Predict the structure.
Amino acid sequence: MIYTLTLNTAIDMNIHCQGLKPNSVNRTLDTEYSPNGKAVNVSIVLNKFDKPTCALGFFGGFSGKYIIDELTKMQIQTIPCLIDDITRINVFINDEQNEYKLVSKGPFIPDNKKAEMLTIIESLNNNSYLVISGSLPNNIEPDYLELILKICISKNIKIILDISHTKLKDLLIYKPLLIKPNNEELKDIFGFTTDTTEQIIAALENVHQQGAQNILLTMGSKGLYFSNGKNIWFCNAITIKQVSSACAGDASLAAFLSEWLPFQNNCQLAMKKASATGANVAESNGLGLLNKVSTYIKQLEVTQIK
């Protein structure tokens, strides 16, 4: 079972309009709502690829109920930790020229609910997987992640991390099975630039030395890299007309895991599927239909660079 943990769940509101003028009434062309939060997205895409998954997270108010209801409609198992505050709503506006991202910080998580979530994690099946992804809401400090990882280690739950917080660097001492930084996070968290292949190889090798067992490095239109500590592969990206970058990285991670787990092989197919899925999502609203993934996979190439 692949569990996913979203500490800061959300609804994504994707708006399209023709131009965006200040101090004016801007009429929208269409608006779409989708359950969200980075690890929630991973569960949604895993489910689309017929992989068993269960979504954990904090949910509150009408927006939290909406996410739970939508996941239930998709037949995705959820273990919610219910809070009083309202789950955030993020707004993405595309005016046919630019994309504007309005991302909320998130609700307040009381101490007793933080303890309840730890109890939920302690109840998970041994020898499973936990994807921890996304930002931290109000009243959850970065050290809370260490409490979660210690529980996982005691239960032999393998950890997959996709977080942009600088705490990621400290968490590598727990030797996560996989981390998925993008090129900006590799620079902001670890201080590495990724302008050349040589720089990328050096950066990945250094992050392995700090504790990461495997690394999936996503670089948007520049493609993605995967390193298992011995070899490094590169997969190119499909050229698309981007509608929204929201969810694309999460979808890529889920697609990769759908092929790579549980035996941690088929990495080249997993990379192609990750790149194809990310592109398909970026050219649609939210997670889209993933209707072009199989076509895009045939157009991609994976090369071993180390």
